[in-house]
What we know:
- The two termini are about 15 Å apart.
- This protein is globular.
- About 35% of the residues lie in helices and about 25% in strands.
- The chain contains 7 helices and 8 strands.
- It is an alpha/beta fold.
- The chain has one domain: Rossmann fold (3-Layer(aba) Sandwich), CATH 3.40.50.
- An 8-stranded mixed β-sheet has the order 3-2-1-4-5-8-6-7.
- The mean pLDDT is about 95.
- It has helices at about 10-15, 30-50, 80-85, 95-110, 140-150, 170-180, 195-205; strands at about 65-70, 85-90, 115, 125-135, 155-165, 210-220, 225-230, 235-240.
Amino acid sequence: MTVTTATIDPAEAAHFGAMAADWWDPKGSSAMLHKLNPARLGYIREQVDAHWHGDAAGFSPLAGRSALDVGCGAGLLCEPLARLGATVTGIDAAPENIAAARAHAAQSGLAIDYRAGELAALGPARFDLVTSLEVVEHVADPAAFIHGLAAALAEDGLMILSTPNRTPQSRLALILFAEGTGRIPRGTHDWDKFLTPDELAALVADAGLEMVDTRGLAFSPARGFVVSDDLKLDYFITARRR
């Protein structure tokens, strides 16, 4: 399957590209992503170990496997995936983000293949693990985007997505509170573009994949962001080929 439909929204790419120099500052405009990362990585590790029957105590569960992170920003997920043993490719709509990602990976001594542009530009490449976290709500054509992710997935591969749910709780937390108080830059989210779990599941199924797991990403005052059964704020979806 080849997907050539453009999915990049130029306004979204410009918005996130303007934040490129700040991505790796845990107190900067991407502070929320830094807070999300431990929960994200815990969920990814859980799904990877379950799919490939890995050793939960091992340090390199992705050794010998390839990973693609789509909408990678400046590499906040790519670098941990590389440290987990994967051969990592990251692609992002904003060239500014890719420049920042390459510079940080070089400082960290990590060999990550970073690309700027459309997912379709990767051509026929296939990856064992395909991730795209907090991205589908920013693309111009979600259906084409999900088809593109599925096309990049290897036969025994695993795809992991996360995105905000379209609920009153997400509007309150992400837009009225987080953006309204400056914890997230204003204009980051358009609540009307959020997808419900059923809507995203339908796109995943239409792309020829089957759902493996759906979990929530919730906020705990005591522990920060945690993986949860509560899908009202944000959620993960894991899928594989049928």
